[in-house]
């Protein structure tokens, strides 16, 4: 897909990877609809996209709320005329062990609320936004692209029962949607990043960062631009669908 004048919706576009994707793709002249919970961060992202030469609008919405998602996508369609690309990027972490034991006795277990909060954003949010984007693409005859953000943690990771399960589910939905929506000319792909340099990793203790860097054959963390580059690859390569790109510097966990 050539994204010039196309409408790209990015959830979690207020900061981090979502913002980096928008700013990076802005050079190609797409229009952006950025969804997030935080209005202040969203307006900063819109200003950065506009500086980079594209049009952008923001929408404050919670991706876990069905009514908000439905009305937001309707509004985006009304504002821009079409929805060509969705990057399902909003996601959260609420790490913790399944249980903790002392002297053979379980002293703590992961509360259902901690498990559910991650499933709500990372899995239900992806489902709701993907469904609404697909509705508009099919009704409009748009041969669009949906990209879902998974993670290397999808293979299972210590302390991430909730996150790993959600990110594995995202890949399963990706393959399912590619098969179901291919008949409408819609492609669906997923990206599974390793550890990418963000405000969170910048704030880590140096020894923790060094340990993470050593786990990667490339010897460093990933850059947000390298994830944006992967988004561009999926958009441009018309033969890509139903698969996940692992972009993790060869990390072995
Ligand atoms: N940064 C990494 O190293 C890394 C690695 C693998 C996967 N990922 C995935 O990439 C995506 C982006 O990660 P990031 O590091 O930029 O995260 P981030 O925390 O910097 O940004 C996520 C954004 O999503 C928004 N968000 C959270 N809950 C929301 C909700 N209910 N409704 C609407 N917006 C909501 C947040 O406000 C935030 O702006 C996530 O899905 C994450 O799991 C990131």
Automatic annotation (TrEMBL):
InterPro entries: KR_dom, NAD(P)-bd_dom_sf, Sc_DH/Rdtase_CS, SDR_fam. PROSITE patterns: ADH_SHORT. SUPFAM superfamilies: NAD(P)-binding Rossmann-fold domains. Residues 6-199 form the Ketoreductase domain. It comes from the Bacteria. The keyword Translocase does not apply. Keywords: Oxidoreductase. Belongs to the short-chain dehydrogenases/reductases (SDR) family. PANTHER family: 17-BETA-HYDROXYSTEROID DEHYDROGENASE 14-RELATED, SHORT-CHAIN DEHYDROGENASE/REDUCTASE. This is 3-ketoacyl-ACP reductase. It comes from Thalassotalea loyana.
